[in-house]
Amino acid sequence: MSRTVGVTERDANADLVEPIREYVTDEETHENAPAVVVRADEVQAVLSTLKTEAGLDHCACVTAQEYADRFETIYHLRSYDDPTRELSVVVPTTSDHPHSESAAPVYRTAEWHEREAYDLLGIEYDDHPDLRRILLPETWQGHPLSRDYDQDQPQIVTFREHQHLLEDRRTGPDTMHLNIGPHHPSTHGVLHLNVELDGEQVVGVDPDIGFIHRCEEQMCESGTYRHQIMPYPDRWDWSGAGLANEWAYARAAEDLADIDVPEYAQVIRTMCAEFSRMLGHLLAFGTYALDVVGEFNAVWQYAVRDRELIQGILEDLTGQRLMFNYFRLGGVAWDLPEPREPFLEKIYAFLDSLPEKVREFHDLVTNNEILQMRTVDTGYLSPETARAYGCTGPVARGSGVDYDLRRDDPYGYYDRLDWDVVTKDGGDNFARLLVRLQEVEQSARIVEQCADLLAEWPEEDREIQSNVPRTLRPDPDTEIYRAVESAKGELGIYIRSDGTDTPARFKIRGPSFSHVQTFPAMAEGEYVADLVATLGSLDPIMGDVDR
């Protein structure tokens, strides 16, 4: 059965409101957590109190949206120690001049989220350290998600408005400005880095994103819950981790519409998600060997070889190799291929061969002195900084932050299986590399247990999908934030319904968005060669960043 937050759990989180009771002007009911409405000029006081007194130290996501009479910013707060302790802080502002206090002085990760809200909706945030556009060019006219946006207006501006982009941005007379990307093999996609160098030492980095922004949220808002949204999540992460992305949408929509999922389908989903995690980590591992020790083509080829085996298994199951579109609301599209025995034997054969391959990866890469010299004690990320920037997944666990939604906010079949969360205390590039490689082994443990369950499941109980209405129309103004543990980290979805069969607001919280934001804090003060190794250790996917 799917895990739906009920009244009891929301009541358990009601105590989170007490420290800020004096600031609350209204209360709302979101499906995942209680929600409070606060004044736009008291945001920092509210969030500081929740962080220090209620222990809500994780700003998971920030959602901005416009109603007919107001703009609204929602801060989705959770606890790193227990993500089921969560609270939504709703900040309404006027339509004529939307502005409120910035949350960035309290949660550093809110800086980029608020820049996105300003860029797309025009909400201004007082005390924001760097309120400028983030996805669109700085010369863009208007805010595309606002109701009064003129889609037909020309985007041609005078040279005077362009001029500041051409000015010398050097921080001093002895530094050099270096552009890396957006088309560069070490940027892992279309990412542009404005780098300031003092000799070979990095004194400043400004990540420039938005080159592959494809309006995924708006496309989902124009699609129906039941049939038209599910093909999109695969495209947010083309490393092969799309099945976990599909689960993120499914988990949010199923809880929103109160849809159950049969246990048999949950086992299949869990197996698929772990195969996706292995696909993502193997690609990260293979490309990292190229980034750091360039002549390591063999490691890249070995990683791709093992990915091909997994892709073959998933192709047998889903019919696709990358854009799977296999999950459905209420379950999965179809059962295991028939005959079942050869398919399961293919899985077991891959799992039997994996331990030797992992040992080989350790011999070639993690035990390599050159790689160790370039990754140990470089790209350091402290646990405090990781939390401040909202880091999750291997990036956070490589800094000793023991946070994994599969265990801490259980869904699927994870809480009934035997596996371990991998953490390392190093906080450097090497620690993040080790976390991913060891997580491949843990994923294999989970896949094997799922395969055993599927092999023994009684034929008469193999229910792949619950009875879901052809058209879903959740009640108007129903709101939910739900997340899963993707290969990159916490992948969250916020949905607000308006009573129709399409969402009124669909917000994607990509884990790589927070990780790329963290990059300057890790790279500044190190050498330009370390910059490449640090970026690769974050394993960003730009479709996950730009959306």
UniProtKB/TrEMBL annotation:
SUPFAM superfamilies assigned: HydB/Nqo4-like (SSF56762), Nqo5-like (SSF143243)
Example of a GO cellular component annotation carried by this entry: plasma membrane
Keyword annotations: Cell membrane, Membrane, Multifunctional enzyme, NAD, Oxidoreductase, Transport
Entry keyword annotation includes Ubl conjugation: no
The protein's Enzyme Commission number: 1.6.5.11
Record's subcellular location: Cell membrane
Domain NADH-quinone oxidoreductase subunit D: 299-547
Pfam families tied to this protein: Complex1_30kDa, Complex1_49kDa
Domain of life: Archaea
NCBIfam families for this protein: PRK06075.1
Name of this chain's protein: NADH-quinone oxidoreductase subunit D
